[in-house]
Design a protein that fits this description.
The chain has about 180 residues and is mostly beta strands. The chain is built from two helices and eleven strands; from the N terminus they run βααββββββββββ. The chain has helices at about 5-20, 25-30, and strands at about 1-5, 35, 50-55, 60-65, 70-75, 90-100, 125-130, 135, 140-160, 165, 180. Strands 2, 3, 4, 5, 6, 7, 8, 9 and 10 form a nine-stranded antiparallel beta sheet that branches. Strands 1-11 form a two-stranded parallel sheet. A hairpin with a 3-residue loop joins β3 (about 50-55) and β4 (about 60-65). The longest helix has 17 residues, at about 5-20. It is globular and about 50 Å long. The protein binds zinc ion. Zinc ion binds near residues 75, 77, 136 and 142.
Length: about 180
Amino acid sequence: MITRRQCRSLQERAARMFDAAGIYLSPEERGRIEVADFGLGQPEAEGAQIFTFVQTDRYAAKVIALLPGQTLPEHWHPPVGSDPGKQETVRAAWGRCYVCADGPDTLSQARVVPAKGPVYTARCEQVFDAGTTRTFEPGEKHWFQAGPEGAVLYSFSSVVRDALDGFTDPAIERTTRIVEDRA
Ligand code: ZN
């Protein structure tokens, strides 16, 4: 859960990062940046700011802004019915990001969120700078952590069903609840 004020402040910070990356969003679009806290209520530690350019029942294109040190929690995209699951290509647009996935433990720059060791199991780290691109297959676990300046990533994928994604942390709820500030 986050407050409306927190949501606006994180949207503004993300919008400035999209500006820095040279990604144009209209004033109306800036107000539609999704602030995800994954139900954990500590969005600057674990969260993401996401703008969806397009999302149909077949494909999607998004941009993700991560604040300095912010972690997008470990998840995977499971099969749904006859669909084998979301295939996702991530490309760094700005800043530095540590991308961790299934594979041998090479964790060195990324820092597992304090006290969350058991729910960050994918520890094969790759450092993304602008232009680094990688595709995740369905079922492949991955999590992202921005470096000290933050990071902006493109995400291109087949059909998105965020609510059905798997998260290693059982405390996660994918839908962010926003509470109104008291007057
Ligand atoms: Zn993903």
